[in-house]
Structures are given as C-alpha cells and as structure tokens.
Amino acid sequence: MWKKTLTTAAIGYMVVGLTSAHAMQLNVSTTQTADDPLIAGFELFKQNVEDRTNGDIQVRIFPSSQLGDTQDVMEQAMAGANTAALTDAAYLADYVPEIGVLNSPYVFDGYEEAARFVETDLFNEWEKAIEEQAGIVVLSFNWYQGARHIFSKEEIHEPSDLEGMRVRTPQAPIWTESMAALGATPTPLAWGEVYSAMQTDVIDGAGAQIMGGYGTRFHEVSPYISLTRHIELITALVVGRDWFYSLPEEYQIALKEEARNGGRHASEVLLQRIEEVKSAIPEETGTQLIEVDEEVFKQSVSDYGYYEKMELQEAYDAVQEALSSSQ
Question: What is the three-state SS of 266-323?
C-alpha cells in the first residue's frame, strides 16, 4: 500500500512539471549506480539536450532506482509523467512479444551484432509496434550493458552445476525462462534486493553483467563468477508517448538523436572499462572468474526447448536473417 501511494504521489508531482510555461524537466531513471558507465552516457545526453533546447528541457539523472524499479518508472511514463526509463526487451515484450527475443539466450554474438540489429528494418517495425501498443516512445535502443554472466556462491562450470540453485532474475517471463533453460531455479527479485539476498542465503546466485554487478558490489558476496555470456544485454531509453508528443517537433528530434549519441558513448565507455574491472574483482575480493564452454550452455537452451516454449522461434529466425542481410 505504501509503495502504491508513493508511486501515485510521484506521478502527480511529475505531471505538474508538464504545465510549466517555460522549462520542462525530464527525469531519467536507471537501476545502475552513479559510477556505472551508463551514467556517462546520461550526462552527455543531459548536456546535449539542454544545449539543443536552449534549456527548455532540463534533464535530471536518478541512478540506483531512486524513482522506483524499472516497471514503476515505465508505468509513470505511460501515465503521462515526464520520466525516462532505461529498460530492456523483456519488459517491452508484454506489449510486443517478439521483441523479447532480444533478451533470450545466445541470440547475439557480442555487442557489434546487437548494435547492428537495432538499426535494421525489422527492429524499426517492432519499435513502431511498441509505441502503438504500449504508448511508449523508444528514444534509442543502443545502451549496451555487457554480456550477462552468473555470480554465484558455488562453482558453475556446466548446466548440471546449476541444478537446484536459486538464481535471481528480473520478474519478466523472458528472464525467468532464460535462467531455467540454463539449468537453474529462477528466483525473481528486485535488483536492489540481490546483495542482501545473496548475503543471507535467500538465493545462491544472480545473473548480472560484470559492470552492473561490480557497481552494486555483488562480488563481495559471490565467490565465483561464471562467464556464461548467455545474454548480450542491449537496452532502451524510453519515454511516454503523451509527454513526448507534447513537445515541439524539433525537441522530439533532439531527444532521439541525443539519446542515440548518449547510448553510443555509454557503450564505448563500458567496453573500455570491462577488462580492467575483470582484473579488479579478483584483487579486491578473491572472487574467481570461471571461463565456461558456451556450447554446453547453448545445448542446454536447445534441450530445454526455450524458443519453442516461449513462442520465439520465428522471431529468433527473423533476427538472424536480418543480421545476415545487414552485413
């Protein structure tokens, strides 16, 4: 009840900002911490948007889920609030199911493929469908957060090692089924609850990117990180349709262009920092990074029948065809 009351109050406060005759505020929300590379992209986005709108749009950045979890912020945006959420395909799949394939296991072979796909005609069709079905405008879908691995309390070398292990995932079915396909027992939890849940043995592990896990100090409670690379996580900066189209057209263009520039910059910063963080983690806590045979995990996904079960086989094939055509 308290959480719902807080969310409603936040919406009311944010919508008030829309009535200003002059500067409007856009609140950008992310679950990532203030020192995550994504914040560098948000800072560039803020600077450029404010410059291009002569200060008419003021951007404020809220890291560490300060405005609520991703679903809360997306609901605020859909209700008309002046909020932007950094979200992933699993959340958007509630409205356009086929886009959920982007958060499925082993779709992309690295960042370059993921970045190339979101420039294809197929992705543009999905983007338009999201706006029509959900009332959400995708400013850009090029915010790369890295390959997803498994932080754990026990060593994981192959799918059989995950049997019976409770591994945290986000709530969306795409996430939970992806983890089940790898061999674990998916345990949905909010990102901000993972550290304490690991610390108190509520869960045995968590799926996370290296940078995201490092920023929230997961390695302090995880003796092992298995480098499964099971998802190449590329994410979107989205706003509500009603708020977006209340802006002058030139401001709409500026938001989209600068979101793309910000996402590209954030991705470049992340790629530069990942290797140094991989070296820092063992030095800081003794956490062991385990290289695994990805083919064994891919076979586990196939044996599980993930794509058939999630009704995403057609979408997976379409993505591969689009990638092949875009080379």
Answer: HHHHHHHHHHHHHHHHHHHHCCEEEECCHHHHHHHHHHHCHHHHCCCHHHHHHHHHHH
